[in-house]
Design brief:
The complex is a heterodimer.
Chain A: H1 2-20, E1 24-27, E2 36-41, E3 48-52, E4 55-61, E5 70-76, E6 80-81, H2 85-92, E7 104-118, E8 121-132, E9 135-148, H3 152-155, E10 163-175, E11 193-205
Antiparallel strand pairs in A: 1-4, 2-3, 2-11, 3-6, 4-5, 5-7, 7-8, 8-9, 9-10, 10-11
Chain B: H1 2-10, E1 19-27, E2 34-43, H2 46-74
Antiparallel strand pairs in B: 1-2
Classes of the chains: A mainly beta, B alpha+beta.
Amino acid sequence: MIIRLLITSLFIVAGSAKLTAAPVAFDFKDPKGVNAIQFHLDSLLEPISGTAGGVAGQVSFDPKNPGATRGSITVAAKSLVVPNAMMNEHLLSTNWLAADSNPEIIFQLAELTEIRTKDNETTAQAKGSLTLKGVTRPISILVKLTHLPDALGKRMNKPELKGDLLVIRGEFTIVRADYGIQPGKNEDKVSPEVKLTLGIVGSASRS
Amino acid sequence: MISTVGYWALMGAHQGWSQDRIPRHAIDEVTGLVHVTYENRFLPGIDLLFGGCTAAVIVLLSAFFLQRRQKYETR
């Protein structure tokens, strides 16, 4: 009787621990400067490829409960870089991204759906909204989240640093006209669709 | 024109737009993320080739017509 009671109590405690496990906040401002979103679009002469390195934001993630993931990622519009300087100037200008008046590109995560977790990897549909050039539209992105416990110190070459990493990968396409970027114009010279590749890492220090 | 074509060919005969910075890819060891950095270096492209050749043709034609005009004036 006592043993049964003890076992039942242990199960209750274990269950409570799972329910009260809190999501951890991962900071995506990368001190190593690796975080970037790559963009790619076809154009007349050759494809235009570039990166946006000014990534920041916070995502709360609980490996035991990925469905509770929430957060937002911001990208500084002026951090978009293409190899040609004149093209870069046009890209940030009023006719295209208007980076001066719309300094941030924001992805706000509302929820993760279709979650599948295997070991430390979770794939899901990240549903939320994307704000680009002042226009906010709903968006759904297939993402892969990789939780790397105790990897922060190794990545920063500082073994004394304790903490976890969360790597988010994804690929999605947007139509530039949807965000008021030269809608219906120059589509024969610059593709109306832009492919974006996300590869970012957030850190959660345990000091 | 020869200089323009020669310079463009010598620098790699890049068939796209000229580049002011060259992307370089590296892999972040711990996360496996591909990381792009840019090397500040000029790579001439088709636009420079076209511009240089056009300028050469303009100079050539100008020289030709000036020469003809001078010949006409000296008669």
